[in-house]
Amino acid sequence: MPRLVEDEKEAKPGKEKAAQPKTRKKGVDKWKKKVWYTLLAPEEFERKEIGETIAEKPEMLTGRTILVTGRDLANQPKKQHIRIKFRVVSVSGSKAHTEAYGHIIKDDFMRRVVRRRSSKVMSVNNYTTKDGKGIKLKLIVVTDRKASGKQKASIKKKVEELAKKVISEFDSKKIIDELVFGNFPNKLYPGLKKIVPIKRIEATNSEITAAK
């Protein structure tokens, strides 16, 4: 289980007078005052334990983030290349509750997907969820054969049009689950295959922003 630990800065010793013996002042060991907290995924991810973190006070945990692979989160080995972003929003006892605010796919995975005799079309755009939150989303469409410049432009325009519609059907608490584990690519595919045969559609990066 991942553990998040804050780095402690070592205090620099002060200058001693030559005539005085060197003495060490007794100080409070800050580590003894700190407590370990269990990080819990939100309800849409079954409140699974996703890691541990340490803090001196519960309020210091708010806003702290952690990345969890899809494999660790949902026991799906095929999702090892995906990392879901979680952020602490509240603390109850020794439990720190989080929210999912985005995800990222490793670049080396996408490099393996794009082969010769295919084209890659990338789109980075801002969308709005059903509950009015903004989400920045990066989409990559890989064609089954080389696409012309005109076809690439059509794919980019169409994928953004389709993504806007699909994302508007989910609230911010459900959209990350849909992007990572749901049928999001399948909902875009029918509209894109009419332009050129499609090999793969991936939402490679997302991040929920403030309400619109």
TrEMBL record:
GO cellular component terms, semicolon-separated: ribonucleoprotein complex; ribosome
GO molecular function: structural constituent of ribosome
One example of a Gene Ontology biological process annotation: translation
Taxonomic lineage: Archaea, Candidatus Iainarchaeota, Candidatus Iainarchaeia, Candidatus Iainarchaeales, Candidatus Iainarchaeaceae
Protein name: Small ribosomal subunit protein eS1
InterPro entries xref list: Ribosomal_eS1, Ribosomal_eS1_arc
Pfam families cross-referenced by the UniProt entry: Ribosomal_S3Ae
Location of region: Disordered: 1-29
HAMAP family in the record: Ribosomal_eS1
Family: Belongs to the eukaryotic ribosomal protein eS1 family.
Ranges of compositional bias, category Basic and acidic residues: 1-19
Gene giving rise to this polypeptide: rps3ae
Tagged with keyword Transit peptide: no
Alphabetical list of SMART domains matching this protein: Ribosomal_S3Ae
Keywords: Ribonucleoprotein, Ribosomal protein
